[in-house]
Amino acid sequence: MELNYISDSSLDELKVNIFSNLEKYKSDEVWLDQYFRGTAWSFTSKIRIENIDLHMPQSSTLHFDFENTKKIYTSLKRLSIIQATDERLWTYLTHTTFWNYMRKRWPVESYLEKEKPVDAIKERYFFMANRDRALIRNGIARLWWYGYVSYDENREDPFELTKVLLSKLDIAQSLLERSFSRNPDITKAVLSVLKQKEQDSSLIDRENFRNLMMYINQLGGVTILDTLDREDLEGLVREKIEMFA
């Protein structure tokens, strides 16, 4: 299939009218064609991929994020960073191609009492204002970025580090909501050390992992992380983690 993008004007119109469209976000049917009444609201790119059949969430705890990350990233591995940060692409996918998945994974009804549903829709179906967080909050973009920062073709199982990344929700959030997270060498260095230390869970509890992320952020102020090779990066991470013992 060919990847489509929503047009700029249609994207703006949808975002402005989220509140008035709340009932539509509860529908199990894709509604954009009817909403735009036949006007040209999307355009086709030159990117061709195979059809992606995502696993449907089965419960509040069985989401298949790892399995779906493998599917999304394998199919869209050739996306450039510019393409992967384009809200128009992911908004099209959340509202059409993967609408059924979105209804299962991020049902709007679950936000009506706990949170502001408009903010929840902005976060999961579009891009939120914070650009770094937006990429891993959008319901489909997040799956691609999980793969991008962890896929390692030099391993027997290229998704071995992806499994580490998604083993605990705190790891994915704390790691990917940092400014350095778009550099896969840094994220894979962190995940590689976590893989080596996974038998000692006391070293990588929530508090220690957040301290580790703060440490790496601070390093960015005095060291040009991008210039370090993977071995040096892993050494820095390993040294910090062992200090928690």
- Average pLDDT value? 88
Radius of gyration: 19 Å
The count of DSSP E runs of length 2 or more, i.e. the number of strands, is: 2
Describe the strand arrangement of the main beta sheet, using strand numbers.
Answer: 1-2
What is the first-to-last residue Cα distance? 51 Å
Number of helices: 14
Tell me the helix content: 40-55%
Oligomer: single chain
Look at the helices and sheets and give the structural class.
mainly alpha
- State the low-pLDDT regions, or none: none
How large a portion of the residues is in β-strands, by DSSP E?
under 5%
Largest sheet: 2 strands, antiparallel
How many separate domains? 2
**Which H/E pattern describes the elements?**
EHHEHHHHHHHHHHHH
Shape annotation = elongated
Q: Could you list some keywords that capture this structure?
A:
two-stranded antiparallel ribbon, 245 residues, DUF6339, mainly alpha
SSE arrangement:
Layout: E1 2-6, H1 8-16, H2 32-36, E2 42-48, H3 65-75, H4 81-84, H5 87-97, H6 99-105, H7 117-125, H8 131-137, H9 141-150, H10 160-165, H11 169-176, H12 184-196, H13 206-222, H14 230-243
Antiparallel strand pairs: 1-2
Summarize the structure.
InterPro entries: DUF6339. This protein has 245 residues and is mostly helical.
Model description:
The protein is mainly α and 245 residues long. It has 2 domains: 1-38 and 54-150, no CATH class; 156-244, no CATH class. It is 53% helix and 5% strand. It contains 14 helices and 2 strands, in the order βααβαααααααααααα. The chain has helices spanning 8-16, 32-36, 65-75, 81-84, 87-97, 99-105, 117-125, 131-137, 141-150, 160-165, 169-176, 184-196, 206-222, 230-243; strands spanning 2-6, 42-48. It has a two-stranded antiparallel ribbon with strand order 1-2. α3 (65-75) crosses α9 (141-150), α5 crosses α6 and α12 packs across α14. The longest helix has 17 residues, at 206-222.
